[in-house]
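Schema walk-through. Below, the input block comes first and the output block second. Nothing else is stored per chain. Lengths vary across the set, and this one has 269 residues.
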Amino acid sequence: MPTGRKANAALAITSVLAGALALVAGTPPLRAQGKLTVFAAASLKNALDEVNAACAAEVGEEATISYAGSSALARQIEQGAPADVFISADRAWMAYLSEKNLTRKDTELDLLGNRIVLVAPADSTAATEIAPGFDLAGLLGDGKLAMANVDAVPAGRYGKAALQELGVWASVEGDVAQAENVRAALALVSTGEAPAGIVYRTDAAADPKVKILATFPEDTHPPIVYPVAQTAASTHAAAPAFLHCLQSAKARGLFEKQGFAVLAPVVSD
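--- output ---
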């Protein structure tokens, strides 16, 4: 059993995770009164909330958006959750649904790109450069590295792949605090419960209580791509308009403001 400082840190991390999950990754709601329902990766929240509001007039309504880890959302769609649109933080979970004929393949589109970064609390004095064999364990000291689940959640998988490629995963594997999604991992760093974490660049930009220590080279992990598609079960008349608006010039500006790279070509109104 852990004792002393590490035991207290573990209890604090458990508490923060519970609170973050309640706020970020709650159980997706049943479709309310026929409203357009979107399941989206947790890292999209700030940008997609703005895009949703900006697209309301064109779509005819603001969509109900449920944010969580892409893995959890894909599993819920597989189990029959009433989503009209799915936006994943990686191609793998979109492919998972597509291969089961749970998406409309003609609507699948690579929408956005992102980067992963190493972050610390804003008042941290830590400094490092990401390079093969860098001393991440030394930076953590007695603390934990906050990451999204490294086996299922895209941000966690990208982070683990990068650390493996850099040859440092083995040195920190036993000191990783795994969260249900990337925003929950961000919360651990933002509240100071973890001295460092791996999140998307857009998450770090959205939280003034963290700072970016370094950005992972793109060649250390698979390309970070956010695909979107209408689900096969969706019959909502507004879904095509919502997908169209995601590719509009106004949506591009809002996504780029939050730090995303827009991969899809802009469509005319």
